[in-house]
Structure formats: structure tokens, C-alpha cells
Q: What sequence folds into this?
């Protein structure tokens, strides 16, 4: 593996260890969605998900009904939609006697084909073409079985993680349908800002942190119903287990709900809660106010690194704390300012790590190194197709990527860089960022030709 930059801060060194663990496990203002200038409108847009699920005794199986309505933003008719069943990414279509982890049945509002792309994509043909500006819906039964592995969709002891478990709509844009394969190193995900209303019926002894603003009410004897409402988010995730909990409100008015497994280090939990609350307020000032009102921090001792979802992050937590600041930064860079995580992972990972470095005051002077680059084909802007085939190089998206943005800050000046990022976030709030759009925005605030900068930093 190429050598990592020699950060000079003790805190940086500690957080870099957490970052490496994260890599190993990943085997503001305004209310309208904005897309990069000159790009074709992505569709189906403005999705609304209504979901009702019932969990079994330990939260390892969930069954129920899901409905999604959507609007056609494209100029041409929409004849089909695709559901992404990302929960099937690792085990694909299952094995004899063991079905896929996520199954869809009894589809209404369209005709389903056989699952494709290793059972991570399900085509649903619409009964008639959906014209530009029209709205339609499909509904279906869904069954979710949590795999027996410690992963973003998996379990640790008595605790269940349901990241990327809920079927969501694929995106169609100028490149066509995005039906990329699942990757365990990094993310394959690309979704448009959506509204969710999810009711989770579960045993009362389980706590259920979830994306969105949640409230829990009594259900049938021995059971409770946690209802979550989330507006303009790109995905929905939840967890379940006998968590310990605490709630606080930051000076900026964000409700931080902390959930942790009892054996998790108390020192690490306290540090994670402190840094998480500080980060959400700080990034709200730097990039635009956090719009969701609530964020859940889910902590266990053995979960490797961290994983981000809108309004909820999963965190492996030791005495040294966790990767909470990096994951909170993802609320803006991937969550609010979206991107195709398969096609351009640097647009969320490099930006989140740059924010992380600024938060901890890492010394990034001279952190860029040409020695780290294995070949001319390696570029910050490579897709996950490249990084999945060169797993040992993927850390560059974090390390070299944050260095490149730190160098851009020195090139533009700190105040100009701060204004650039805040304005860029505003212009792409709930929309989709692209490399071309960011380069154009950066060039617009500089009198210097940035072409040599992009070339040197392998931003293509």
C-alpha cells in the first residue's frame, strides 16, 4: 500500500487509525433541489416513500408494505422504473435454501421483471408511459432479513444495522439508468432527495434509531411503533437493539440522539457525543444550516470505522472515540449536496475528510505527495469501478483528496475557499454535484487559471 501523508497532529494520527478501520469495513439554505448547470434533469424525482414494517423479536427480520410515488422530470416519457435492492449486494441472489436478504413481491402499479445486477436491481414496467410532469406510484410487499455479519447491513451481538436495506428508486439522467454493481469497498449509491414516512412496529425492549424525526408510541401488548418522517433525504436507515440512550440539543438547535451498546467504552461514547454535537453546529455554519433538526449517533465497540446515512451514522467506538466528525460531514457532502457515489466518490469522501481535517486542525502543509500515485491511470476523480479493482489505492480518495482541497484553500485563500464551499453547497442544496460543476465554481472565484492545479492534483 502506498504510504500515507505524515500528519503532524496527535489527534490526526488517532483519527487516521479510525479512518483505516472505516476503509477496511467498507469492503445551506434553500428548499428546492438543484442540479449542476447544463445537466439533464434526473428522474424519477420528488419520490415519496410510505413504509410500514413489522420487526420480529430480535429485529433481524422485517416485513411489510412499501409504496413510492414519483414525478417524471425528464423531457421524454418514463416507461419503467428500477428499484435498487442494495441489501442483496454482498450475498447477491442468495444460495439454495437461503433466499436474498431483500425480497420484493406483490407489485402493484407496474409489472416486475426478474431481479438483475446480482439481485440489486428490479425493473418495474409502468402500465403506460408517464409523460413529463406527471406523477405515478408503485407499491409492493417487502421482506428484509439482516445478514449475520458485522456490516452496514448486518448485526453485532444483539444489535441490528439496516443501512441500505430499504428498496429505493434508481436514477435516470443524461447517462441513462444508473444500475451500477454493488461494491463493498466504498459506496455504489446514487439517489435523489426524497421524502419518507416509515412506521416500524417492534418489540418494546428494542430501541430503534432511524433517519428523520422520530417518535415512539405504544403498539400492541409488548410492542411499540416508531414513526419517522424525513424530508429531502437520499436514503433511509435504521438500527435496532437494547441500546442505552441520551438526548441533547446543540447550541445551534440540532437534537442529537445518542445510542450505544452497553459494552462500548464510556470514554469513547462521551468523546463521540461531544465531537458529534460540535461538528453538526460547525459544519452548519461553514456549509449551510443543518436542515433535518435531528441526528442519531449509533455506537458499538466492534463496528469497523463508520458509515453515514441521512440523519443517522453508525460508528465503531473505542476509548479513542470514533470517526463521528467525518460521518457528520457526510450529512452535507453526499446527503444535502448529493453525488453519484459510484461514479465520483471523491465528491463526498474527499470533501468530508477535508472538513474533518479542518475540524481537528490537522497540519496539511506539504501533505501532497506524487510518490503516493501508483500510475498515470490513478486519479482522484476515478469511479468505484477503478477503486474496486485497485483496493489498495482507495485510501487516496480520503488522504490525497483532502490534501488536494487543502491545497486549493491555500491557492484561493482561506476566506475565498470558505465562501466557495458555502456558495457551492447553496447552489446544489438537495441537488447533485459533479466534478465539472465544482471545477467551474472554483475557477469563477479565482483570477488564476486553475488548469495546472487540476492536472497536478489529478482532478480530471
A:
Amino acid at each position: 500500500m502506498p504510504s500515507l501523508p505524515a500528519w503532524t497532529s496527535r489527534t490526526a494520527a488517532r483519527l487516521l487509525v479510525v479512518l483505516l478501520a472505516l476503509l477496511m469495513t467498507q469492503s445551506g439554505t434553500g428548499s428546492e433541489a438543484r442540479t449542476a448547470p447544463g445537466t439533464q434533469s434526473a428522474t424519477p424525482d420528488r419520490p415519496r416513500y410510505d413504509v410500514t414494517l413489522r420487526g420480529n423479536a430480535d429485529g433481524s427480520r422485517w416485513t411489510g408494505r412499501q409504496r413510492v410515488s414519483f414525478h417524471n422530470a425528464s423531457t421524454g416519457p418514463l416507461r419503467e422504473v428500477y428499484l435498487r435492492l442494495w441489501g442483496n449486494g454482498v450475498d447477491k441472489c442468495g444460495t439454495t435454501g437461503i433466499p436474498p436478504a431483500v425480497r420484493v413481491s406483490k407489485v402493484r402499479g407496474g409489472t416486475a421483471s426478474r431481479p438483475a445486477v446480482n439481485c440489486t436491481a428490479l425493473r418495474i414496467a409502468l402500465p403506460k408511459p408517464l409523460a413529463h410532469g406527471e406523477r405515478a406510484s408503485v407499491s409492493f410487499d417487502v421482506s428484509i432479513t439482516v445478514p449475520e455479519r458485522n456490516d452496514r447491513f448486518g448485526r453485532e451481538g444483539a444489535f441490528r444495522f439496516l443501512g441500505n436495506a430499504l428498496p429505493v428508486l434508481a436514477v435516470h439522467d443524461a447517462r441513462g439508468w444508473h444500475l451500477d454493481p454493488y461494491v463493498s469497498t466504498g459506496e455504489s449509491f446514487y439517489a435523489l432527495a426524497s421524502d419518507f414516512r416509515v412506521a416500524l412496529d417492534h418489540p418494546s425492549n428494542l430501541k430503534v434509531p432511524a433517519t428523520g424525526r422520530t417518535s415512539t408510541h405504544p403498539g400492541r401488548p409488548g410492542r411499540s411503533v416508531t414513526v419517522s418522517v424525513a424530508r429531502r433525504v437520499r436514503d433511509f436507515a435504521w438500527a435496532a437493539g437494547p441500546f442505552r440512550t441520551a438526548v441533547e440539543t446543540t447550541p445551534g438547535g440540532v437534537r442529537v440522539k445518542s445510542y450505544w451498546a452497553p459494552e462500548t467504552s464510556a470514554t469513547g461514547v462521551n468523546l463521540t457525543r461531544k465531537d458529534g454535537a460540535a461538528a453538526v453546529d460547525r459544519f452548519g455554519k461553514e456549509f449551510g444550516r443543518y436542515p433535518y433538526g435531528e441526528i442519531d449517533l449509533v455506537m458499538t465497540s466492534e463496528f469497523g470505522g463508520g458509515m453515514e446515512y441521512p440523519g443517522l451514522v453508525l460508528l465503531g467506538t473505542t476509548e479513542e472515540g470514533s470517526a463521528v466528525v467525518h460521518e457528520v460531514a457526510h450529512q452535507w457532502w453526499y446527503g444535502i449536496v448529493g453525488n453519484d457515489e459510484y461514479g465520483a466518490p471523491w465528491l463526498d469522501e474527499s470533501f468530508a475528510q477535508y472538513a474533518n481535517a479542518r475540524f481537528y486542525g490537522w497540519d496539511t502543509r506539504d501533505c501532497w505527495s506524487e510518490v503516493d500515485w501508483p500510475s498515470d491511470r490513478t486519479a482522484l476523480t476515478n469511479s468505484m469501478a477503478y477503486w474496486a479493482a485497485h483496493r489498495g489505492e482507495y485510501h487516496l480518495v480520503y488522504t490525497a483528496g483532502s490534501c488536494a482541497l487543502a491545497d486549493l484553500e491555500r491557492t484561493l485563500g482561506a476566506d475565498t475557499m470558505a465562501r466557495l464551499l458555502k456558495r457551492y453547497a447553496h447552489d446544489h442544496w438537495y441537488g447533485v454535484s459533479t466534478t465539472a460543476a465544482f471545477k467551474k465554481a472554483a475557477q469563477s472565484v479565482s483570477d488564476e487559471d486553475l488548469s495546472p492545479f487540476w492536472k497536478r492534483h489529478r482532478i480530471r
